[in-house]
Design goal:
Number of strands: 2
Strand content: under 5%
Strand order of the largest sheet: 1-2
Number of domains: 1
Radius of gyration: 19 Å
Helix content: 55-70%
Order of helices and strands: HHHHHEEHHH
Largest sheet: 2 strands, antiparallel
């Protein structure tokens, strides 16, 4: 599924240049942001499942399975799995960790927008509570490209925490996200 989700994300991103309508572009960029976060969470679920089946990390398997069964949040997984299972903390207040948290927060603002208590009246119509769609309205194609690069970079950060050598990141990205060789 990780390969499939990354393939979907790449297709969404690469097809953006063919869209001429700004509204449809924003819709597609929104989908790219949603898909990027989804691909990363799916990767975390599967990658850590594989890791805890390895001899070196087998002692964490029951902990991992419990957190999956308890449907722990993405936030929980980010804060606890690398530290508990790999023995290395994922830094979430700077670098790639913060960039992903920011992307996740953007996704959340697009999904869980806040409604105001304003009332707007025009002849024969009264609207109570307006949604703030500023984040949506400000989306541009570059946001989708950044979401894809960030997703790939995030996987590399997890590989780094796992102890994978940087020279092997491209191979691991092909394996885990179906990224074509450069």
């Amino acid at each position: 599924m990780v390969n499939e989700y990354f393939t979907i994300l790449r297709r969404l991103v690469y097809n953006l240049d063919d869209i001429k309508d700004a509204g449809i572009t924003r819709q597609q960029v929104t989908l790219c942001i949603f898909q990027s976060v989804t691909a990363i969470e799916t990767f975390l679920n599967l990658y850590f499942r594989v890791i805890v089946s390895e001899k070196e990390f087998k002692r964490h398997e029951q902990y991992f399975l419990k957190t999956i069964n308890d449907r722990k949040s993405l936030e929980y997984k980010l804060k606890h799995w690398p530290k508990t299972i790999l023995g290395r903390e994922l830094i979430l207040n700077s670098g790639i960790g913060k960039a992903f948290v920011d992307l996740k927060n953007l996704r959340n603002s697009l999904m869980h927008f806040v409604s105001s208590h304003e009332t707007v009246r025009v002849p024969n119509i009264e609207i109570q509570g307006l949604a703030n769609i500023d984040h949506f309205e400000s989306l541009v194609i570059e946001d989708a490209h950044k979401a894809l690069v960030l997703a790939e970079d995030f996987l590399c950060e997890i590989f780094r925490l796992r102890g994978i050598k940087e020279a092997d990141y491209n191979y691991m990205l092909r394996l885990w996200s179906a990224k074509a060789p450069a």
